[in-house]
Design goal:
By secondary structure, this protein is an alpha/beta fold. The protein has three domains: about 1-60, OB fold (Dihydrolipoamide Acetyltransferase, E2P) (Beta Barrel), CATH 2.40.50; about 95-115 and about 270-435, Vaccinia Virus protein VP39 (Rossmann fold), CATH 3.40.50; about 120-255, OB fold (Dihydrolipoamide Acetyltransferase, E2P), CATH 2.40.50. The chain contains nine helices and 23 strands. The protein has helices at about 80-100, 160-175, 210-215, 270-285, 300-305, 320-335, 345-350, 370-380, 395-405; strands at about 1-5, 5-10, 15, 25, 35-40, 45-55, 110, 120-130, 135-140, 150, 180-190, 195-200, 225-230, 240-245, 250-255, 255-260, 290-295, 315-320, 340-345, 355-365, 380-390, 410-415, 425-435. A hairpin with a 7-residue loop joins strand 13 and strand 14. The longest helix has 18 residues, at about 80-100. The protein is globular. The N and C termini lie far apart (about 55 Å). The relative contact order is 0.11.
Length: about 425
């Protein structure tokens, strides 16, 4: 089927119309591309297709820097320059908000940092075993996450992280023994501290060539922590971790603050861009001396700690106990005494404090966004402003409409490109009550 790509939409898809009028979504395409495409999944009014051949490339299309770009699911936009990635992400956010009938207009998107590659502080590879009993590093196929693309490296990770991954692969392959227990490899890096954590994930307790792996990894002075993580039945739900070498933690710095990172910690993936994000949150929050701040979905406490210098008190609320443990440790690490971190569901905490005056509220929910109940309760609170941090423009726009229906509107919306080469977009917004 011959199609012309009209525009980019959410989740990395290009949009085209088939001759019968159906909408066709195609990844790895640029507006203006004319392609031969094959439909692989049909719905009633639309379909998903893959490119078989580019008949006429868009004038925006450039040569991807990564040799694995076409099949790999790690990147969406390497065929676009950084300037065009920003332009199209701008258009995507504006269209999502327009379709949701949100009154506020977004500001022009800004880059999190000037580094387009090598910015990820966390990367995961899949171990793939061939019929000759050789281990390879794999990444997910962009069409089917159950299939994998064999890679030598990932350009979103640093050169040092790729070097470590290759050393692990080569050390395993020096043995002729059984390798089936090797499942995944996760490497985390503190960019400001130059500390690295290696997590070798196995499907059983068996870790072949354990001594050889530890000895090889000790050659890298950056590696401060080596774990074996046992994922029985190849499930990430119930993990058992064994520290094989070094410290249980690594660290990262944001501005003047230092944060510890454990294997369970959620931390913003782009260390180089997180200061841009947090500075925008700080700008919108406009914290005055003596303000009380509540940070919902606070994770490991990094936003609350970053905002703590002027606030009278910061209360972080998070349902994950391990995250709260890290948040409390991070407050102690930074000698901050005005932050309190509470293990509780954010919706329940707000209901229990519905009559309390809260000066500034920060919400940074998962991709699913906020529940209606939580939005309704937030709108009942006596607050000065809310800063909504979102990693999903679609649920963000949905939630803004619900806020608007309850008299709370966005006065500022700032998209930030924290993840170059991918479709992901971060948004920071300031919300206030209509007077």
């Amino acid at each position: 089927m011959k199609l012309k790509i009209e525009k980019l939409v959410s989740d990395g898809f290009g949009l085209a119309h088939a001759p019968d009028g159906r909408v066709i979504f195609i990844k790895k395409t640029s507006p203006g591309d004319v392609v031969n495409a094959e439909i692989y999944k049909k719905q009633k009014d639309f379909a998903f297709a893959k490119v078989e051949k580019i008949i006429s490339p868009s004038c925006d299309r450039i040569l991807p820097k990564c040799q694995y770009f076409e099949p790999c699911g790690g990147c969406d936009y390497q065929m676009l320059s950084s300037q065009n990635q920003l332009k199209y992400k701008n258009e995507i956010v504006a269209e999502i908000l327009h379709r949701a009938k949100v009154d506020a207009k977004p500001e022009k998107i800004i880059a999190g940092s000037n580094q387009e590659l090598g910015y990820r502080n966390s990367i995961r590879f899949i171990f793939e075993i061939d019929d000759k009993n050789h281990i390879h590093l794999g990444r997910h196929n962009y069409l089917d996450e159950r299939k994998f693309v064999i890679v030598d490296k990932c350009l979103l990770a640093s050169e040092k992280v790729n070097e470590i991954a290759q050393a692990i692969r080569d050390t395993i392959n020096e043995s002729d023994g059984e390798k089936s227990s090797f499942w995944q490899l996760k490497i985390r890096q503190g960019f400001a501290t130059n500390e690295i954590m290696v997590e070798i994930i196995t499907s059983t307790e068996n870790l072949p060539v354990k001594k050889e792996l530890i000895d090889e990894l000790k050659k890298f002075p950056e590696i401060k922590s080596i774990y074996q993580t046992i994922a029985s039945g190849k499930s990430l739900k119930h993990l058992q971790r064994r520290l094989l070498f070094g410290s249980s933690l690594i660290h990262e710095k944001i501005g003047g603050f230092i944060f510890q990172i454990s294997p369970e910690s959620f931390f913003q993936t782009n260390s180089l861009g997180v200061k841009t994000l947090y500075d925008k949150i700080k700008e919108f929050a406009d914290i005055k001396f003596g303000d009380e701040v509540v940070d919902l979905f606070c994770g490991t406490g990094s936003i609350g700690i970053y905002l703590s210098t002027l606030a009278k008190k910061v209360v972080g609320v998070e349902i994950v106990p391990e995250a709260i443990r890290d948040a409390r440790d991070n407050a102690r690490l930074n000698k901050i005494s005005n932050c309190e971190f509470i293990i509780r569901d954010s919706t329940k905490w707000i209901k229990q404090n519905i009559n309390k005056k809260i000066d500034k509220i920060i919400v940074d929910p998962p991709r699913a966004g906020l529940s209606k109940d939580l939005i309704f309760d937030l709108c009942l609170l006596n607050f000065d402003l809310i800063v909504y941090v979102s990693c999903n423009p679609a649920t963000f726009a949905r939630d803004l409409k619900i806020f608007e229906s309850r008299g709370v509107v966005a006065t500022n919306i700032q998209p930030i490109d924290m993840f170059p080469q991918t479709h992901h977009i971060e948004i920071v917004s300031k919300l206030t009550k209509i007077k």
